[in-house]
UniProtKB/TrEMBL annotation:
This is Sorbosone dehydrogenase. It comes from the Bacteria. Pfam families: Aldedh (PF00171). GO terms for molecular function: oxidoreductase activity, acting on the aldehyde or oxo group of donors, NAD or NADP as acceptor. The keyword RNA-binding does not apply. It comes from Phytohabitans flavus. The active site is at 235.
Length: 483
């Protein structure tokens, strides 16, 4: 069914119209879920061998790799991020899809023969059913591939609702999946804004829902999903800290702090938007951070020299700048940046100068709230206990980074941090094998790794008695009714 309207997409770096997406409705979601339901209940995909599913996924990975430059271009244009970052995202998507293909061949349960002598327990791991996947705009293809190949590897059928700002690469990957041999009805995409997302979360024929987006929307998704108590996993917002101790390799830490916050224009859930720096080194270190921020080249995604791209839409640009004002009102000093960039290279785009706010108090909004832009909030600490208290003193718990060469300190602090991911002497790093997700308001469940795969499966216990059982209902010693 054709959507009733359309959503224009203007490139945030130039203002040019670059795409138009169908404005899907609840009606479209219903049709897509119906197709996925039929494909799950009657189609070959969940019934195929793991090896056959893996073959399709490996073909899909090859096709994504073969179309990498197109996919990277679409994401760079629609997100406003530097092309070379988008190319990295597509390479990541290929790796995730290949890794998930391997999981399809390894799907297994367990067997128990150590209870009664005549008892055998089989624990089956089966596909969960129809999976709804809702994705955000900051890493369109990459986040899709943190979910889609895992759901497919498990034998689920899928309905995807990509972000209304960045749907092109998802539509392209769906086309490639058909080319790879995915049967009809297994993968369905409904474009549109929050309304079709809400309809997907509410739909009673969806068995499992995997959502990535803001904590505000995550709460709505959780509420909507109560219709049939579907399983929900939520990958939500963050307020990560870079914790720099005085015994760190300070050159590495400097690179990491700058990369950690300005990567992807700060529009990254694990963006290390808080710098916690040990007092003894703070002044000197901060001077270097501010200098490095000023050296970053902010500009057009397709200019190979660009480090930092554009904000996703005008409202978001305003929100980011508003946070800088709020930070200053609440006592922070703007060391650098804090304004929109104008001039010939920037006039038509939504560019914010990389910003460093010093002297941020732990009760300030810029310390506690997700800004999702190129803004670093700096707070000083005395010792490791204080660093941990500060890092944990926010409602989020997605990721944190430790910079130190003291292994004892790294392990103690790493264990005490309340976040699903801890980076040590590196940042925004990882591998498809590593589960990813949040503590506290950063989410529920995990994606990637074995744990991410298992989110798309159900366990079934089959309890088998191999001897006759009499009187098990307390009905006396007489013959069982079925004798
Ligand atoms: P968002 O919550 O506005 O939107 C995410 C998706 O949900 C979009 O597809 C949107 O159309 C859809 N949506 C909106 N309203 C909905 C509703 N009521 N029901 C169902 N779906 C609805 O988030 P965004 O602005 O696209 O992305 C930025 C946010 O995502 C940030 O908070 C960021 O931290 C978070 N994020 C988290 C991770 C992670 O892995 N934890 C990764 C990337 C982004």
């Amino acid at each position: 069914m054709e959507p009733t309207g359309s959503i224009p997409r203007r490139a945030p770096a130039t203002g040019e119209l670059v795409a138009e997406f169908g404005a899907g409705t609840a009606h479209d979601v219903n049709a897509a879920v119906g197709a996925a339901r039929t494909a799950f209940d009657e189609g070959p995909w969940p019934r195929m061998s793991g090896l056959s599913r893996a073959e399709v996924l490996l073909r899909l990975a090859d096709l994504i790799a073969a179309n990498a430059s197109l996919l990277a271009r679409l994401d760079a244009e629609e997100v406003g991020k530097p092309l070379r970052l988008a190319e990295g995202d597509i390479a990541g998507a290929v790796g995730l899809t290949r890794y998930a293909a391997g999981l399809a061949t390894q799907m297994h349960g367990s067997t128990y023969t150590n209870h009664d002598a005549d008892f055998t327990g089989l624990v089956l791991r089966q596909p969960a059913g129809v999976a709804g996947l809702i994705t955000p705009w900051n890493f369109p293809a990459l986040i899709l591939c943190q979910k889609l190949p895992f759901a497919l590897a498990a034998g689920c059928t899928v309905v995807v609702k990509p972000s209304e700002f960045t749907s092109s690469s998802t539509l392209e990957i769906a086309r490639l999946a058909a080319e790879a041999g995915l049967p009809d009805g297994v993968l369905n995409v409904v474009t549109g804004d929050g309304q079709p997302g809400q309809a997907l979360a509410e739909h009673t024929a969806v068995d499992v829902l995997s959502f990535t987006g803001s904590t505000v929307t995550g709460r709505k998704v959780l509420d909507a999903s109560k219709t049939n108590l579907k399983r929900v996993s939520l990958e939500l917002g963050g307020k990560a800290a870079s914790i720099v101790f005085d015994d760190a390799d300070l050159d590495d830490a400097l690179d990491g702090v700058v990369y950690g916050v300005f990567f992807n224009q700060g529009e990254c859930c694990v963006s290390a938007s808080r710098l916690l720096v040990q007092e003894s080194i703070a002044d000197e270190f901060l001077e270097k951070v501010a200098e490095a921020a000023e050296r970053l080249r902010v500009g057009q995604p397709f200019d190979p020299a660009t480090d930092v791209g554009a904000m996703i839409h005008p409202g978001h640009l305003e929100k980011v700048l508003q946070y800088v004002s709020v930070g200053a009102q609440q006592g922070a000093t703007v060391l650098t940046g804090g304004h929109r960039l104008t001039g010939p290279a920037h006039d038509d785009g939504l560019f914010v100068a990389p910003t460093v706010l010093d002297g941020v108090r732990p009760d300030a909004r810029v310390f506690r709230e997700e800004i999702f832009g190129p803004v670093l909030s700096v707070t000083r600490f005395g010792d490791a206990d204080e660093a941990v208290r500060l890092a944990n003193g926010v409602e989020y718990g997605l990721a944190n980074t430790i910079w130190s060469k003291d292994i004892d300190k790294v392990l103690d602090v790493g264990k005490a941090l309340q976040s699903g991911t801890v980076y040590v002497n590196t940042t925004i790093d990882g591998a498809p094998q590593m589960p990813f997700g949040g503590y506290k308001a950063s989410g529920v469940g995990r994606e990637m790794g074995q744990a991410g795969f298992e989110e798309f499966t159900e366990l079934k216990s089959i309890n088998i008695r191999t001897g006759k059982r009499r009187g098990t209902l307390g009905l006396g010693a007489g013959p069982a009714a079925t004798d």
